[in-house]
Every structure is written in structure tokens, then in C-alpha cells.
Design a protein that fits this description.
The complex is a heterotrimer of chains A (765), B (291) and C (146). Chain A is of the alpha+beta class and 765 residues long. Chain A contains 20 helices and 28 strands. Chain A folds into four domains: 198 residues, Aldehyde oxidase/xanthine dehydrogenase, a/b hammerhead (Aldehyde Oxidoreductase, domain 3, Alpha-Beta Complex), CATH 3.90.1170.50; 154 residues, Aldehyde oxidase/xanthine dehydrogenase, molybdopterin binding domain (Aldehyde Oxidoreductase, domain 4, 2-Layer Sandwich), CATH 3.30.365; 196 residues, Aldehyde Oxidoreductase, domain 4; 155 residues, Aldehyde Oxidoreductase, domain 4. Helices cover 29% and strands 25% of the residues of chain A. In chain A, strand 23 and strand 24 form a beta hairpin. Chain B folds into three domains: 46 residues, Uridine Diphospho-n-acetylenolpyruvylglucosamine Reductase, domain 2, CATH 3.30.43; 111 residues, Uridine Diphospho-n-acetylenolpyruvylglucosamine Reductase, domain 3 (2-Layer Sandwich); 112 residues, CO dehydrogenase flavoprotein, C-terminal domain (Enolase-like, domain 1, 2-Layer Sandwich), CATH 3.30.390.50. Chain C has a single domain, classed as 2-Layer Sandwich (Alpha-D-Glucose-1,6-Bisphosphate, Chain A, domain 4). In chain C, a hairpin with a 2-residue loop joins strand 3 and strand 4. The radius of gyration of chain C is 15 Å and the shape is globular. The relative contact order of chain C is 0.23.
């Protein structure tokens, strides 16, 4: 089934934040620091205040004690949390930090006046390298802390030291998982309006988490939560970057209340690069203990995460997901992980598509290839050898998570068959002899989805779903998940329609408005279908029971004998004895012939909390050729076999897989947020920061195996991030494999042409 | 992405445009396709007080041939160049180059004159213009003058255009018989501009020797240049793959290549040689086909 | 960004040194310099219009002379800030003479911040080269006029 969302979106009939305008609306423009580290000595705003059309110029001093700090929900022992205000007070800690905001009667005048604010900065030494930041001599990002270590988190299980003593070989490698910029198509944007009559603040924001945002804004503004309404209208992509509470969201709301007029702020692309969260940025020093026969006994990793200057909502928690998933889809009995989070003078990192899991998958999938290389084994064989078997599920890992269900050999087998792996290896040998560099890369991944049980989630890991059958038999679904492009308006409608025996066209899915929808958590971590979908699925079951009870009453039979048919409720075994769906619905509303103790109306809500995460998995095969003269990487084939449990809508699943792979390709080949040693972001625009273009994308061959999840009744797992998690190591493994004849062991991402060219040149290609 | 305020004029004739330009002087910028100027204005890297939009002037968009000379109006879009039957037959280097510029949207709006006058050091057209020995026609209230491509590009973002002048036309000779040409480019992965762009045109005499060879290179240095070292190594020689490879090694002779995040000077120099060889080899193959 | 290079000026060393250490001359050497006024010992406030063709912006900042060892060495420190951010240059000039010509070796660093840094990196190398070339071209002209 095609996406219900698309007709309005492709016709330009969707309403994004910037499409909304209110009478008397003002515009905000933000002055941001050009320095990475500085003391704010003086701000002279007089010229800006006098400029035409300017209504207000606000600085950090004005919000001191008025606006609360930007929240961090991550709970880690001994986490250092520097106060983080919507406008800098006293100190600047990264380039792009907001210093002042101008509000004017149009966006041009607001922007003009920004240039008139005179700021006297006292530049301070900056630190941008996380390892240098940990040295004693390093400048401190926050003076009040004795060093730049933000947090320390450890896992140790299964006696890793002993395993390393027993090893035949120890394989070591350092992996850099570079800093990425999420680049959602629509930058952030906020429109806020305060209605003094009902004392209601309404905030439209391009966000993934309207309910959590509402709770947090209310706290930051010190306004009772019931007087705040947050609406996420159409959201033009988030990829995790809008799973956050940003200073601008509270600031714009504050300005609307203070000035008594609606205020809009739209982020520019430049601001989006500087001041919306970044992703990844880890250094992983990994070593594994292996037996000569290929068994992996243990893994140790020191993970150094560059968190940037401040914590956003989940900043320091993201690398813990790397830790939980670090053993990948392998039965490795012992592990030791030490994660150090570090402050630097950069924008904060946080959840970016995959959030911690791509880093884990990258390091384990690269590591397994290195083990194969060192032992002279086929990378497919090493993988197979270390997979848990289907009978091992549910499989408890030493990192403390329980993989719900899986059959890893089946996906690998299917992927190798589709790719023609054997033949490819033969072809490769031939081409190598001709001086051509063909490479084949595998990635067998598992990931953590459907976040998750509440014990693992700071704000709770459940989701709400409400289904209301209207008196005309049409259905309104309210979901606390707040999809923003994933297509749940389609897939949820399909599920409800199937359950009720009606057409998906008779179902509408409402989301993203805290006044319309019961409290929910949001869309991220590939959770909307497995958690939000389940909540809705369970709510439908309640309504089905109610409909059956009523139909039984109307037909004079035991409700247990009623079943749902196409557009009707039928007595089992007696197809002619039925009531139409509409008749039963109307009976529930007109309420004249109800069974005893039967509540009129047809609406049900479920809050569903899963007992565990889900663990989708798969096997990807990438075939590349490296141009020996230029270092250019050509992806010749890309085969993706994914298992995300039961599939509701194959088109949506394929779309997620495709998009994920393309984003992974960006990290593997092009993308890198580069800061210089003074903390200046050198890749501050799409002219310099390369995201994949249509011409970079290979044809993607997708296939599936189906291993349902036992943790939810639909048996679904989630697929929003799988492609991003799986594909980066598949591509890098392929390129490293291509250059194997040169003795290449590892190449740092992104695999820029010049980097590969230098390897080719140095080894006399 | 919000430009500073500016005054906007949309003259209907070249005379009117020249008058406006003369009146507003250096504070005025001409708006052709806008695909370089407008992004810079949105970032406020460029803050011209006055914009003179050439888009409503009739008669600045044309491609014609007259006695073996081709002339192209400055407001001709990249897409028009790319799809011109006349050019594909008579000077295929230019449509091949146009097809490599930006993406479809850019090619539909961007213009030949706009791109040349902006003189981005990594723009595609300059390489082709140099290889074609093109002339630029500059018009002012005082009249017109022509400047050869080699002299038109003065430095990064700087051309021979003087105050009050508008680039109105580009002219060059159509291909003579037994001529082959090619444009080969290493794309910048983000901007799509040329890290290295090489335009080559060569003509073979009856014996298979190169009777004319020209190579224009963009992206490598602050301004596009003719690779005269390469040309000298091929002129009057029997052309084959080996000789082309040898000559191409001279692609950056006398040039100090640029360095940036995507490509160091060393890599640029190496790629200039590779793409020069590839462009020349393709051009040779095409010339030989006409045999 | 490191800046280093050598330029030859057709004039004796003393004369070139005198030019390089004269604030009034520096004002003419710096491309786009509109104003240069004393603001402390060997320190001057400047107003500059820096730009390449369509791209231009007004900066204000300071010029400072130090490490003056006539006629062989001096150091020039320029700071500037404007709506695009900031650009600070700091470099030493070492002069040597041969056959009536002066060889000026310069070595220094350019630090840019804000918009110039984050979106100009592609053009920065070429732009710096242009500004330096203009500086020395102006110096040559000043030397010839002496």
C-alpha cells in the first residue's frame, strides 16, 4: 500500500512550521558566537535596539533566573552537568552558542539588527581533540570542573582478563567514528503564541517528541504544564536531531509571553550545522582475544566519546548504547568496556540515526574482518562460527541485554546467495591479478530497537495509543508516537483497518498535538511501530471485544460466537447471521439497545510498555571497485537482507532500508564535521559537507527473512535505523578488502578519495 | 539565509541595463542565473546595494553559427547549451561541459555569462572556453570590446570586466574536420564543483599528427589556465596513448595548485595529470572516429 | 592556516624596511584599508573593506608592529572583526639584500572565525594568496615611488 502521507506532501499541501503565520507575528534572529571559547565581557545592544522594526533585544543577563536550564535526561553515575542556558551567560563554550536574540517585525529586520549588536569577547584557549582534552595541561571547557572528563561508565563480565591470557592471538585496532551532522531536510523552527485569556501557551515546533517537549518547556518557563500545548506539525526529517529540547524552543516561547505577540524563529542551514546536535564522534580502541580456530573469546574497548561542550537531552547516554551492543551478533563470552565522555569546545553530540549502535556495529564488524584477515579465514566463515544458534534465543549477552529472537545464519546465507558470493571471490582474484581493486564487504548486524522497557528509558519506555470509532464507522487513531516521515499514518491505518475489517481509507491517524493526543513518548529508536503500534493494536482489541459483545447482544447469541468479517460482525459458522459494522457502531452511540453495564461510545486507549527491546538483524553485502588512479570508490552491488520481524507494509520497510543505507554511505565515504584546532567548524555548509547525492546511490537489492519478535503481539521489531547501522561497515569492509593486495588493514572514515589514493600511491599501485 | 536589503531593477533592454550599471557603479551587481550570487547574498557574504536583473532582456539568449564562428548569448542557460543540436554537432565540448555543471535545477537557471563573470576557480565552463580559444564580448555604454578567454580570467572571482561593462556574448570557432574534444572532471562530493576539470580539444592532420591541441584546466589553481606544457608535448606529434600520458604529466607545470579540505595540492596535481590524460585520450578517440 | 613565502622587491633593504614599519604606508599596503589611526605604542586602529569581487565586507580591527630590528626583521599583527566573523593574521618579515634587491621572507599564521571559517574554506587558500600578492604588489609600487 502506498503512503497516505504522500499526496499532500508532494503537492505542497503539508504545513511545516514556516508555513504557519499568526496575526501580529514577530520574528526572532539569533546572534551566535564566532569564538569557540570566550568570556563575555560586554554586550552593547543599543544600536540594535534603535534599528527599524526592532521590538526587543534580549541577552543572557535578561534570562538569568527567568528561564531554566536546557534539560539532560541521561542518568549516569557522577555525570558532570554544566549549566546550559538558552542564551550564554558569562561564558561561551562553542562556536554557534547563542549570545543574544533580536525580535523584530519581520525576519529581514531582525537579521539586520543582529549585525548591530557589539559584543566584546575575551577569547580563551579552546580544546577540540578529546584525547588532548583529557590531559592535565588542557584548557578546561568549564572552569568549575577540575577536568574535562564528563562521565565514566564501565561494563565488565565473563572474566575478560583470563580470556585474553588463554588467547592464541590478540587483534587490536583503533577506530575513529567521525563526527556527523544530521542535516534534516527541514531545519528546526519554532512558533509560539500566548493567549492571555485562557492563559494558554501554544508552541509549534519541528520536533520528534511533542509531549516530552511540553513537559520540559513548562519546567523551563515555570508555567503549569496544562497551560502549554505543543504541536509538531509536518516535520521535515529529524534523524534524532529533533529528539531533543533546545534552548530556542523555550526562548521563543518566553519571548511570545513576554512581548504578548506571536514569535517565530526559523533556523538557517548555517545555524543548523553549528547549533543542532551532531552525531557519533567516538574513538574506539578495541582488542579481541581469539583462538586459532576462529572463536572469539573476549573483547575489550576503551571508548572515548567527544560529547562537545554541553549535554543536550541524551548526549552522554548515547555511547552507553554502543557499549550494550558492542558484541554484535556474536557469542563472545567476556567483555570489558570503559567509556569516557569528554567535554570539548564543540557543539553537543546526541542521537543521530542509529544513536550509538552504528558505532558498535562498525567496530565489531570491522574487528571480525580483521580477525578473519589475521587468521587467513573467510570473513563469512568467521561470522558463522561465532553466531549464536537459533536455539540459543532468547540470548543473554555479557553486556546485559537479551536478544529476543534471531536466526543469523539464515540471513547471511540468503545474502551470500543473492550476491553470488563464491563467484564474486573468484572474480576478485582475477581482477586483482589485472591490477584492479575489487572488494567484497560483509556486515552481519544486530541492533536494539523498540526503545524500550521503562527501566532503560529516562522518561519511560512505553507509548500510548487511542482508537476511536466515530458514529459513522470512520476511525480516528491517536498515537503518542510522533511520526515525522516514517509513514505510520499509513501502516497504523492498515493495522486498524485489518483488525476491524474496514478500508484503510476509513482510518485517520492523528499525532503530534498534545491537546489532541494522550501523553506519549515520541518517535525515535525505531520504536513507533513496535511500541506505539502495539499500544494502538491493543486498544483496537478492546474495541473489538466491545463490538463483539454488542453484536452478540443484538443478534441474541453469545459474544464468544461473534467474529470480525469484512465490514460486518458475523456469527461463527453462520455467515448469513450478521450485523454490519456500521449497525453495531451506531448501536453503541445511539445507546438504545445496549447490554447491561455496557458503556456507550467506542473509544479505547492503551499505554503499552514492552518487556524488552527488540533486536532486528540482517546481513548486508557490498561490492566495490576502487579506481586505482583516483581513489574513487564505485559501489557495484549492494545486497541487504534484513529481518525486522513481521512486516506490516513492505514498501515502507524497503524505504527505510534504502534511506538508511544511503545515510550510512554518507558516513562511509563523504561526511565529516571538521573543526579546526581553534574550534571553528570548517564544514559549515552543504558546499563543504558532503551528503550523498542521487548519483552516489547504487541500486539496492533488498530481501528479508522473518523472525517474529516475542515481545509484542504483532511480532514486529522496527527498521528505522537498520540500514544506517548495517551499511557503514559493509562499505568500509568492502573497500579495505579491495585494497588487501596492498597490505591495507584499516582505513579511517570517511573513505575520501585522497586517502585511498595516498594508500595506492604509497604502495606503488 | 536572509539577504540584506537591496534595490532591484529589471531592465527590458541592454541599453537600460548599461545605463543602470553606469549609474549605480560598483555598488551594483548583475543578476543572471543567480546560482552563485543569490546563495552568497543569503549568507550576506555578498551585500550589493543594487541588483540589476538581466532576465527580462530579450536577445541575450541565443546560439548561432555564422561562417564557422559560433556565438552564444550570455543569458543562455546551461541546459540550453547542453541540449543544443548545433553545439553538439559543431562544438560538442561545450555541451559536454555544461552537462557536468551542478544539477538539473542549476542547469535550468544558471547562465553561461553569469558563470563566467562570477569566475569561481572551480567552475566548469572556463576550462572549455580556454580550450576553445573563445572570446568574450564585453559591452558598455562606450561600445564593445573583446577579450580572449585567457585574459578574461584574472584571478579568483576576478575577471577583466571593468566597471560599467556587461559580458554579452561568447564566440569561438566551430570544430574543424578531424577534431575531437572531451571534458573530464573529478567532482567535489559536496558542491559538485570541479576539484579538477579538464577540457581538451585536438585536431589531427591527415597523417594522424596533432595539428592543434588545446587543454584548459579548472579547479586546480586560483584561476583556470591553459596547460601549455601539455599542449607543447603533443603539437605536431603522432598522438597515441603513451604520448598523451607523458604529456599529461605536465598538467600543472608552472602552477601552484590549491589546497582545501577535499584535496591537497599534491592530490590536485596528480589528479590534474590523470584527468588531462583521460580527456585527451577521449578527445583523440573521437577525432580518430571522424578519420 | 599557515602562510609562508618569499617575495623580491626591487629596492634596497633599508628602504623596504622603512616602508614596512611606517603605519601610513601599511595603510596603503593592506588591501581595502580605509583608515588607520594610532591607538597606543606601535598599535593602530584600522578600518578595512576586504573583499573579492562580489564578496566584500567591512572590518575593523588593529594593526600592531613588534619585534622591530631594523633593517632585517619586524612582526606585523593584524586583528579584524566584522559581520562575517573575525580574521587575525600574525607574521614575521625577514629582509635580506642582494644586488640592490630585497628579499622579504614572511612566515605567519592566519586565524579566521565565524562565517569566514565555516563556509569559506574552499576559497580561503586562493583568497589569502590574492591578499598577499596585492600587499607585495603595493609594496613594490611604494618602493618604486620612493
Amino acid at each position: 500500500m502506498k503512503r497516505k502521507e504522500d499526496p499532500r506532501l508532494i503537492q505542497g499541501l503539508g504545513h511545516y512550521v514556516d508555513d504557519l503565520s499568526l496575526p501580529g507575528q514577530l520574528y526572532a534572529a539569533i546572534l551566535r558566537s564566532p569564538h569557540a571559547h570566550a568570556r563575555l565581557r560586554k554586550i552593547d545592544r543599543s544600536a540594535a535596539e534603535r534599528a527599524a522594526g526592532v521590538v526587543a533585544v534580549i541577552t543572557g543577563e535578561d534570562i538569568r533566573g527567568v528561564l531554566g536550564t536546557i534539560p539532560v535526561a541521561a542518568a549516569l553515575p557522577e555525570l558532570k552537568v554544566p549549566p546550559h542556558y538558552p542564551l550564554a551567560i558569562d561564558n561561551i563554550c562553542y562556536v554557534g552558542e547563542p549570545v543574544a536574540v533580536v525580535v523584530a517585525d519581520d525576519r529581514y529586520r531582525a537579521r539586520d539588527a543582529v549585525d548591530l549588536i557589539e559584543v566584546d569577547y575575551e577569547p580563551l584557549p579552546a580544546v577540540t581533540d578529546p584525547e588532548k582534552a583529557l590531559e592535565k595541561s588542557s584548557p578546561r571547557v568549564h572552569e568549575q570542573f577540575k577536568d574535562n572528563q564528563a562521565c565514566l561508565w564501565k561494563i565488565e563480565a565473563g572474566f575478560p582478563d583470563r580470556a585474553f591470557k588463554k588467547a592464541d592471538r590478540i587483534v587490536r585496532q583503533r577506530f575513529l567514528n567521525q563526527r556527523l551532522i544530521p542535516v534534516a531536510m527541514e531545519p528546526r523552527g519554532v512558533l509560539a503564541s500566548y493567549d492571555p485569556g485562557p492563559e494558554l501557551l501554544t508552541v509549534w515546533s519541528s520536533t520528534q517528541i511533542p509531549h516530552l517537549l511540553r513537559t520540559q518547556i513548562a519546567a523551563m518557563l515555570n508555567v503549569p504544564e496544562m497551560r502549554v500545548r505543543v504541536i509538531a506539525p509536518e516535520v521535515g526529517g529529524g534523524f534524532g536531531s529533533k529528539l531533543n529540547v533546545y534552548g530556542e524552543e523555550a526562548l521563543v516561547a518566553h519571548l511570545a509571553m513576554k512581548l504578548g505577540r506571536p514569535v517565530k524563529w526559523m533556523e538557517t542551514r548555517r545555524e543548523n550545522f553549528l547549533a543542532t546536535i551532531h552525531g557519533r564522534d567516538q574513538i574506539d580502541d578495541v582488542e579481541v582475544a581469539v583462538k586459532q580456530d576462529g572463536r572469539i573469546l573476549a573483547l575489550k574497548c576503551r571508548l572515548t566519546a567527544d560529547l562537545g561542550a554541553y549535554h543536550q537531552l541524551l548526549t552522554p547516554a548515547i555511547p552507553t548504547l554502543t557499549g550494550l551492543l558492542m558484541l554484535g551478533c556474536y557469542k563472545i563470552p567476556a567483555v570489558k568496556i570503559e567509556y569516557v565522555g569528554v567535554f570539548t569546545n564543540k557543539m553537543a553530540t546526541d542521537a543521530y540515526r542509529g544513536a550509538g549502535r552504528p558505532e558498535a556495529t562498525y567496530l565489531i564488524e570491522r574487528m571480525v574482518d580483521l580477525v578473519a584477515l589475521e587468521l587467513g579465514k573467510d570473513p563469512a566463515e568467521i561470522r558463522r562460527q561465532n553466531f549464536p544458534k537459533p536455539k540459543d534465543f532468547p540470548y543473554s549477552t555479557p553486556t546485559g541485554v537479551i536478544y529476543d529472537s534471531g536466526n543469523y545464519e539464515a540471513t547471511l546465507k540468503k545474502a551470500l546467495e543473492l550476491a553470488g558470493y563464491k563467484k564474486l571471490r573468484e572474480e576478485q582474484k582475477k581482477l586483482w591479478k589485472q591490477g584492479r581493486y575489487l572488494g567484497i564487504g560483509l556486515s552481519t548486524y544486530v541492533e536494539i530497537c523498540a526503545m524500550g522497557p521503562s527501566s532503560a528509558m529516562p522518561a519511560g519506555g512505553w507509548e500510548s495509543g487511542t482508537v476511536r470509532i466515530e458514529p459513522t464507522g470512520k476511525v480516528t487513531v491517536l498515537t503518542g508516537a510522533s511520526p515525522h516521515g516514517q509513514g505510520q499514518e499509513t501502516s497504523f491505518a492498515q493495522v486498524v483497518a485489518d483488525e476491524l475489517g474496514i478500508s484503510p481509507d476509513s482510518v485517520i491517524v492523528i499525532h503530534g498535538d498534545t491537546q489532541a493526543v494522550p501523553y506519549g513518548i515520541g518517535t525515535f529508536g525505531s520504536r513507533a511501530t513496535a511500541v506505539g503500534g502495539t499500544a494502538m493494536f491493543l486498544a483496537v482489541q478492546k474495541l473489538k471485544d466491545k463490538l463483539k459483545r454488542l453484536a452478540g447482544h443484538l443478534l441474541g447469541v453469545d459474544p464468544k460466537r461473534i467474529e470480525m468479517g469484512e465490514g460486518k460482525l458475523v456469527v461463527k459458522g453462520k455467515p448469513k447471521k450478521s450485523k454490519s459494522f456500521l449497525e453495531v457502531v451506531q448501536a453503541a452511540y445511539v445507546a438504545k439497545t445496549l447490554p447491561p453495564n455496557f458503556e456507550p461510545g467506542l473509544e479505547a486507549t492503551t499505554f503499552f510498555e514492552p518487556s524488552n527491546f527488540t533486536f532486528p538483524f540482517g546481513a548486508h553485502v557490498c561490492v566495490v571497485e576502487v579506481d586505482a588512479e583516483t581513489g574513487d570508490v564505485h559501489i557495484l552491488r549492494y545486497v541487504a537482507v534484513d529481518d525486522c520481524g513481521n512486516v506490516i507494509n513492505p514498501l515502507l520497510v524497503d524505504g527505510q532500508v534504502h534511506g538508511g543505507i544511503v545515510q550510512a554511505l554518507g558516513q562511509a565515504l563523504f561526511e565529516e564535521a571538521v573543526y579546526d584546532e581553534n574550534g571553528q567548524l570548517l564544514t559549515g555548509e552543504l558546499m563543504d559537507y558532503a551528503i550523498p547525492r542521487a548519483w552516489d546511490v547504487p541500486r539496492i537489492e533488498t530481501a528479508r527473512t522473518v523472525t517474529p519478535s516475542p515481545v509484542n503481539p504483532m511480532g514486529v521489531k522496527g527498521v528505522g535505523e537498520a540500514g544506517t547501522i548495517a551499511a557503514t561497515p559493509a562499505i568500509v569492509n568492502a573497500v579495505v578488502d579491495a585494497l588487501r593486495p596492498l597490505g591495507v588493514r584499516d582505513i579511517q572514515m570517511p573513505l575520501k578519495r585522497e586517502r585511498l589514493w595516498a594508500l595506492l600511491e604509497a604502495r606503488g599501485s | 539565509m536572509i539577504p540584506a536589503s537591496f534595490e532591484y531593477f529589471a531592465p527590458r533592454s541592454l541599453e537600460e541595463a548599461l545605463q543602470l550599471l553606469a549609474h549605480h557603479g560598483t555598488e551594483a551587481k548583475l543578476l543572471a542565473g543567480g546560482h552563485s550570487l543569490l546563495p552568497m547574498m543569503k549568507l550576506r557574504l555578498a551585500t550589493p546595494r543594487t541588483l540589476i536583473d538581466l532576465g527580462r532582456i530579450r536577445g541575450l539568449s541565443y546560439i548561432r553559427e555564422d561562417g564557422g564562428r559560433i556565438s552564444i548569448g550570455a543569458m543562455t542557460t546551461h541546459a540550453e547549451v547542453e541540449s543544443s543540436e548545433l553545439l553538439r554537432r559543431r562544438a560538442p565540448l561545450l555541451p559536454e561541459t555544461a552537462a557536468e555543471i551542478g544539477d538539473v535545477q542549476v542547469r535550468n537557471r544558471g547562465t553561461l555569462g553569469g558563470s563566467l563573470a562570477h569566475a569561481d576557480p572551480a567552475a566548469d565552463y572556463p576550462a572549455a572556453l580556454l580550450a576553445l580559444d573563445a572570446e568574450c564580448v564585453l559591452t558598455s555604454q562606450k561600445g564593445t570590446r573583446t577579450v580572449v578567454a585567457k585574459d578574461f580570467f584574472v584571478d579568483m572571482l576576478t575577471t577583466a570586466l571593468q566597471a560599467g561593462e556587461i559580458l554579452t556574448e561568447v564566440r569561438f570557432a566551430a570544430d574543424s574536420p578531424r577534431t575531437g574534444s572531451a571534458y573530464r572532471k573529478l567532482h567535489h562530493p559536496a558542491s559538485g564543483f570541479a576539484i579538477v576539470g579538464v577540457a581538451a580539444r585536438l585536431t589531427l592532420d591527415a597523417t594522424g599528427k596533432g595539428s592543434a591541441v588545446s587543454v584548459g584546466i579548472t579547479g586546480v589553481a586560483p584561476k583556470p589556465y591553459r596547460a601549455t606544457g601539455v599542449e607543447r608535448g603533443l603539437l605536431g606529434q603522432t598522438l597515441d596513448a603513451k604520448r598523451i600520458a607523458e604529456a599529461s604529466a605536465q598538467a600543472t607545470r608552472g602552477v601552484e595548485p590549491l589546497s582545501d579540505l577535499q584535496a591537497s595540492a599534491r592530490y590536485r596535481a596528480a589528479m590534474a595529470a590523470v584527468f588531462t590524460r583521460r580527456a585527451l585520450a577521449a578527445a583523440l578517440g573521437r577525432a580518430q572516429k571522424q578519420g | 592556516m599557515k602562510l609562508e613565502g618569499t617575495q623580491t622587491i626591487s629596492a634596497p633593504r633599508e628602504g623596504v624596511y622603512r616602508l614596512l614599519s611606517d603605519p601610513a604606508v601599511i595603510a596603503r599596503l593592506l588591501p581595502g584599508c580605509e583608515k588607520l589611526e594610532p591607538a597606543g605604542p606601535d598599535t593602530y586602529e584600522v578600518k578595512m573593506k576586504l573583499g573579492l569581487a562580489a564578496l566584500s565586507g567591512s572590518y575593523q580591527g588593529t594593526v600592531k608592529l613588534s619585534e622591530q630590528r631594523p633593517p632585517e626583521h619586524l612582526r606585523l599583527t593584524v586583528t579584524s572583526r566584522g559581520p562575517w566573523g573575525f580574521a587575525d593574521g600574525d607574521g614575521g618579515f625577514t629582509l635580506s639584500e642582494q644586488g640592490g634587491q630585497t628579499t622579504v621572507h614572511y612566515a605567519g599564521e592566519l586565524k579566521v572565525g565565524g562565517m569566514v571559517a565555516s563556509i569559506g574554506s574552499r576559497l580561503l587558500d586562493g583568497a589569502a594568496r590574492m591578499v598577499i600578492a596585492q600587499f607585495f604588489k603595493n609594496l613594490e609600487r611604494e618602493a618604486a615611488a620612493e
